[in-house]
Amino acid sequence: MDSIVTHGGRMVDYEVIARKSRDDITDYSANINPYAPPASVTTAILQNIYKINDYPDPVSRRLRQIFSERYGVSKDCVFAANGASEVIDLFLRVLRPKRVVLLEPSFSEYAHAAKRNLIPIKKITMASDFCLPIYSIKDTLRKGDLLVINTPHNPSGRFYSRSELEVIYELILQCGAYAMIDEAFIDFVDGGEEHSSLPLVHSHIVVVRSLTKMYGIAGLRLGFGVADQKIVDHIVQMRDGWSVNLLAEEAGIAALQDHSFAMKTREWLREERNDCMKQLEKIHGVIVYPSSANFLLVDGSFGGLHVAKWQEKLTKIGFFVRDCASYGTFTPSVFRMAILHHHKNAILIDELASELSS
Ligand SMILES: Cc1ncc(COP(=O)(O)O)c(C=O)c1O
């Protein structure tokens, strides 16, 4: 049975392709904080491992309480899930929009979730600066549609603040549509929380959050949905009650109480991202998109880069970048790289420079 996923982070495939063990692979294709998981999270997992013969709390009460205290939202308006991907699926299942409107390029799980739920998809292609295509959105949106906005946007890293999104929210309300705001990477944005759409949540605006990237628990899985209480109640009624496992709940409680880890990560990231951008911009024929997130979108078209061919060379050293060809909106010269440890980033950027000079 082959995997159908088109996103990054396919570690098991990478082990097979590179014929290397996990420790000899550097995954630039998933955007996981290289300093994660923090000790607070691993300690919570180890201290609670003896509890795994108990069933988890089906409504994650302690976890939702901590989330609500940290972000100032009512705990009745929050549900936890097995990663943001499950949150996305549950919102589509319950809101049952007439169409899902996607701003392309976009995270592939939006389209997968729409297809699984038999909901038609309408795509709007973004311009190359990844600004919000307000006029196209206005022309496209109809009553009952669900518009997906991802901020910071994967794969460009562009951040749309709450004030920037307000025009869209007005459109949503005027035409009786819905907005699903995916803030999976917002923890990496400097001052991001102040610009989150959480305070605007109501019957037509829902927010998706993830802990998997900042806290390095992609394999454990944990995400949150924030919505009007009626929507949350409906989700709780129809979902699998045990999809958030006991260790994920404990890890989430520890992560959400560990304020300094995310702050320190943002401090490190600001420097490292600037450094990577500077080094990449020095390479002739490379364009790097400004990013507020923990990844960079890089276009090597002018230098004649062919990402799939370059990846064959990277595979030999166990490095995997995210070839953006599968998004359907890019040339074969575009890739996305996570920001990882400095010495690894330097190797990747050197590899790119030598690929383009050969
Ligand atoms: C934009 C976006 N949203 C959601 C997710 C899913 O996150 P999770 O691991 O919490 O399911 C991803 C994963 O890469 C993503 O890129």
Give your account of this protein's structure.
It is a single chain. With 358 residues, this protein is an alpha/beta fold. The chain folds into 2 domains: 11-30 and 260-357, Aspartate Aminotransferase, domain 1 (Alpha-Beta Complex); 39-258, Aspartate Aminotransferase, domain 2 (3-Layer(aba) Sandwich). 40% of the residues lie in helices and 15% in strands. The protein has helices at 11-18, 39-48, 61-71, 84-95, 108-116, 134-140, 162-175, 229-238, 246-257, 259-281, 307-316, 342-357, and strands at residues 26-27, 78-81, 100-104, 121-125, 146-150, 178-182, 205-210, 223-226, 287-288, 295-299, 319-320, 322-323, 334-338. The protein has a 7-stranded mixed sheet with strand order 2-8-7-6-5-3-4, with helices on both faces. The protein has a 4-stranded antiparallel sheet with strand order 9-10-13-12, covered by helices on one side. A two-stranded parallel ribbon has the order 1-11. Helix 2 packs antiparallel against helix 9 (246-257), helix 3 packs parallel to helix 9 and helix 10 packs parallel to helix 12 (342-357). The mean pLDDT is 96. Bound molecules: pyridoxal-5'-phosphate. The site of pyridoxal-5'-phosphate (PLP) has 13 residues, from helix 4. Pyridoxal-5'-phosphate (PLP) binds next to helix 4.
Helix content: 25-40%
**Class per helix and strand makeup:** alpha/beta
* Level-2 CATH architecture of the largest domain: 3-Layer(aba) Sandwich
Q: Provide the β-strand percentage band.
A: 5-15%
**Could you name the CATH homologous superfamily of the largest domain?**
Type I PLP-dependent aspartate aminotransferase-like (Major domain)
Q: What is the average per-residue confidence, as pLDDT, rounded to a whole number?
A: 96
